[in-house]
Structure formats: C-alpha cells, structure tokens
Design goal:
6-stranded mixed beta sheet; 14 strands
Amino acid sequence: MRLYYCFLNLFLILFLNLNCIKTFQVLEDPPPDKEGLVALGLIVAKWGHRQNNFLGLEAPHGRHTELGSITDVSKIIFMSDQEKDIEGDGNYRFKWVTKFSMGREKSKTPQPYYFALSQLPREEMLFLKSASYSYLTYHHYTYRDANGNVHTATRVEQHWHTVPIDSTSTEKETPRFSNLGGKKIHFLGNFIAHPINPTGGNDRTPYNGTYVLTDINQYIAKNRTINESLLEMYYGKEEISRKGAEIHFLKRFIVENRSRYWGGIAIKQLLELDPATKNTVEREKIKITSDVPETGID
C-alpha cells in the first residue's frame, strides 16, 4: 500500500501539468469471469461549411456513444458511467464504476479524452457503433416588459448529436476488439471519428452522414489542416507511435484512477513498456513487488 502511493506521488510530481483533481475515479475490481480492461482515446470531428473544414473537435460524451456486438446485433453497450458515490478522506470523492471516461471537458487546457471499459462480456467481438458530443445553440429574441420597454435576451440550448460509425467501410478499417480477459489493460489506440466525403452541416446544423474511425496520428499525417497540438494531447512527450500512445495513456491512468487493483496492473505494464520510467523508478529506489496484479503494491 505504501509503495503504491509512493509510486503514485512520483507521478503526481512528474505530471503537475494535470489540473488538480478533486474527484478520483476508481474502477471496481472485476469478478473472476469479467477480468480485463479495454481502453481507447477518442475525439469527434464537428463538420460544417466554414472553409470546407471542421468547425471543431469535440470530446465524445458517453451518454450516447455506444458499442455494438458483431455476434449479437441487438446488443448495445453505452459508454456512460455506472457509478456509486462513496465518501472518501478529506476533499476526495471516490466513484466506483464499471467503466469511466478520462479527461476533463471544463479544463482550461486541452485534454485527451479516453474511455476505459471494464467488465465487458468476455470474448465477444465488439466495435464502436456510434459517437456523440454536445453543442450549444444561441437564440436571440426580444420581449416587452410590463412598462412597455423592449429588451433583448438570449436563450442557450444544449443539444446531443450522435453520429453512426461505419464498421464496414472499405476505405477505413474500424477496429474490432474483444475483452481478452486476464489481469491486463488492452489499449486499442487513439482515434478520430470523422466523415469520409462530407456535404452539408453548418454552425447550427451538424453533419448527419456516416463517420469512420482513423488513428489520430495517421489522420494528421494526411490532413495537415488539423492542429498538431492533438499529438501533444494524445502522445505527450512520447514518440508518435502506438507504443508512445499507450505509454502516455498509462501515465495518465495511474494518476487519474485510484484503484489499487488496476493501478498496480498499469504500473507493471508501464515498467515493462517504458525503459525511461523504469530507470526513474530504479534511480529513486522505489521497490515494486512482483505480485502487483493480485494485491496491488503492498
């Protein structure tokens, strides 16, 4: 236990660029038949007419973003939190969830947005069926008060826009995956949901066609109009590769998730994957026990 928090404190020092986190999400330890954690980075393109390009890149919202099953077309898994609040020490509030999203939409600085999904059905082939995001519209109107004076006001409305993901496109290969189980975090990569050849859509009416998924790094390589700060968000200071994406995710996961079970597994995977972190741990003389997946770090 002490060594787990010692290692965690090391990461808090290394990643002070993360905003102060008042609420820690804690993934529930899975039952024996539902082990294995699946994670991916995701962002959704908001298409419109302005300069024939994106109006913006939106963080996906779990309420309407959903997984589908290849083997059972009637099955839909919504990527929203299923949580119970538990009182914690001090100012912290712990949330026990079966799946949770990392990233903070209200942050002053751009944040990567991840989904980490636990307790998925074992060995059932899944795919991202749809992605959703929220946006605001502003409606200006005038009214007359009791004294006959005319006033102007604005009504703000929040909308949810869901776009279907084409899982059969010949142009893009949509990742299909299953929960392979085991005491392991299976990181799929970072993806952008975007149209292939879009028409329509503007500031007020989003594009309603079908979207496809592309690896963020591959997309930026072919579309230089997208701000490359995306690479910094999803890769940090790591190399621009699948390995670098996973290292960056694991580092954030260790800081943002406070489950000793999953945190211990993430630490073990990070040390195996990243020699630089391993060297830091050895230099700081932090001892990591060999039974991390079973008991966390005692």
